[in-house]
Amino acid sequence: MAASRPTFMMIVNPFAGAEHAGKIWPKIEVQLKEQKVNYKAVMTKHPGHGVQLARNFALQHKLDQSWVVVAVGGDGTLHEVLNGLHQGGGDQIPLGYIPAGSGNDFARGIKLPTQSMAALQQLLEVQSPTNLDVGVYKNRLDSHETLFTNNVGIGFDASVVHAANDGQKDHLKKYHLQSSAYVFSLIKAFLNQKGFQLSVETAQTKQRFSHAFLVTTTNIKYFGGGVPIMPIADLRDGKLDLVVVEQIGILRFVKLFVEMLTTGNHLNSTVVHHFRTSQLHLETDLPENGQVNGENIQKQKFNLSFWVTQRPFWIAGP
Ligand SMILES: Nc1ncnc2c1ncn2[C@@H]1O[C@H](COP(=O)(O)OP(=O)(O)OP(=O)(O)O)[C@@H](O)[C@H]1O
User: pTM of this prediction?
Assistant: First the structure.
């Protein structure tokens, strides 16, 4: 793409970040106008609308190299826009991001400012797209592919997301570590989540777990609104990191969680298993909760294949 500034298609979820995105958007527009930026903007009106808007945009503009599509919201909004572009054949349209959600894990993962106005300024200074890894998963029984920037969880982290999302009122969720709703969801999920049977297959190894508890396939360092599950995740290595934590008692789990938040020593625990791979297959024997980028995946018996692709981002490289 030429070094001249592109035209930005802003897809804004005004409800992200407990409506923070709706409040910050007018300030973003003031900046865009002051800096004479070419842009169009559209607001999402309901869950899933970001997918439709991005898909329709891609169908019309996938061959036009002058556009950058920017998701304004949280990790869920980014997820919708990424997948809408993919569905519309727009995998080559650069994707920008202004974090305005609650958790903003992707922004943390690529060291983008989590403060929306600072991230806007950085977006406007980018000169050319940067290719970064994106995870892809597909249920073996259907042909639908889903892309993800952050992570896919089965078991405990997904149960936390289900507990948090199911409990939210009018989408005013505050999904981050400091919120009482989040802590309540953690406790509820811990009490409800049972150990489950899981098969893991990578290009190098096959392993079976009889009491898997937390199963997270991640592209970035963080999940759950700033929890560094995989301190060494790399968005350019063409690989995904799978972390399997086996079921343990609550005191040991709290210790592990504190290690995750502080030292990263959780990876040395005998109940934590780490796989780094470009291809992965995960299968559960029974239906379990799932999450992708903090959004619910319907409870199901998982039979998923994962791989990695790369796509252009309009982002200052991590
Ligand atoms: N107009 C709308 N009304 C209600 N919900 C919406 C609307 N537009 C989008 N959504 C939904 O809002 C949900 C939350 O969005 P998002 O994840 O971006 O914000 P967040 O949860 O605050 O941030 P994060 O995921 O970073 O914690 C998504 O599931 C999305 O589908």
Answer: 0.94
Relative to the CA of 73, which ligand 1 atom is closest?
Answer: 18
Q: Ligand 1: distance of its center to the CA of 162 in Å?
A: 14
Question: Three-class SS of residue 162?
Answer: helix
How far CA 307 is from CA of 29, 270, 295, 301, in Å, comes to 37, 27, 20, 20
Q: How far is the CA of 74 from the centre of ligand 1 (A)?
A: 7
- 117 by DSSP, 3-state: which? helix
Ligand 1 centroid–CA 299 distance in Å is 20
Which residue, judged by its Cα, is nearest atom 28 of ligand 1? 76
Which domains are assigned to the chain? 7-128 (3.40.50.10330), 137-312 (2.60.200.40)
| Predicted confidence (pLDDT) per residue in 159-211, tens digit | 998 888 776 544 444 455 556 777 778 888 898 999 999 999 999 999 999 99
Q: Which of 171, 177, 295, 298 to mutate to test the pocket of ligand 1 (most atoms within 8 A of CB)?
A: 171
Which residues have CB under 6 Å of ligand 1?
13, 15-17, 44-50, 73-77, 80, 101-104, 171, 173, 175, 225, 294-295
ipTM confidence score: 0.97
Both structure tokens of 2: 């030429």
